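This week, think about what follows.
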Amino acid sequence: MKLIILSTFVFIFSLSAKEITVMNYNVENLFDTLHDEGKKDYTYLPLSVKKKSRKIQKYCHSLAKESWKKSCLFTDWNKNVLHKKLKNIARVITAYNGGADIVVLQEVENINVLRMLVTGHLQDYGYKYMSLIEGADQRGIDNAIISRYKISSTALHNFSLKPYSNKKTRGIFEANIVIDNKKIKFLANHWPSQGSVAETRLIASAKLAQIARFSDADLTIALGDFNTLDKDHPHGIKRNILPLFIDAHTQALKLGVPLLDGSHWFKGHWSRLDRVFILKNSNLEVNYRSFNIFSKPFMLGKRRWTDWQTGEVTVYDNVPLRFDNKSAQGYSDHLPLVFAFSY
């Protein structure tokens, strides 16, 4: 595969080339206001529902961390709050040139709330197609895709984290899109969080590598929230992904593309949890026009961070502005990745 990555500000166009733009965005807890049977989605329900349910009250009080307990008990996730969250997420998506052709999302509860996002806020931007397959995640968050191109087929590749964890985890979501008779396979990932041992992410990386090796697509792109830090050991990306895939972020840095320090901010530090990988063994000769961590001033703001051990409070500027249900301001604790390619 011929690989060319260019600065976000420099584009080379070919009259015969088909250019596709893609966004990946972890939207942080995009839930509807209804309880999904078998899912622990109680934090994201209206307060009026929680107060009437002994079951929900008991669950909230059982949570280990005090902050989780308070959020579960007192968050009022009502229809007005949800509408504002949807509107804010749509603002981020469309801020990139009116929206990328294909948008892959993490932390979407179900097809119901995905449909609300698309039909209520994005339909006028040309998004006709959407897909989400319910997975095994206990909180109920899934990968999803919306597209201006028809989605020809989808699949969910589940896997177990045993023996390192008995928790059910998010599978790898596959969506295939045919453009000009060329099949492009998107593999959407949301690996186990940093609250899980590194071995769980190693298992996820092995599953992704297995899927990629048997890909029948002309082009295969793996993207999403890989929840992997440089300090991880074992390191699933280094061991199983980089031998098979090109890392768009690393290639862009080598070519001098100006990038932010990361797409996710936590405890005063930026990290590259969100990644884009392109399978090396591809049938298409692909030109990668641009790659960037996308942000606009309205997506960033001040964040107060309190050290739970010392009580010291630090205020940080220009970090992702998380959605606050009380003020209805903010978006997500992640920034989107955007990239464009042609063939």
In short: Confidence is low (pLDDT under 50) at residues 1-15. DSSP finds eight helices and 16 strands in the chain. The radius of gyration is 20 Å. Residues 183 and 216 are 8 Å apart (CA to CA).
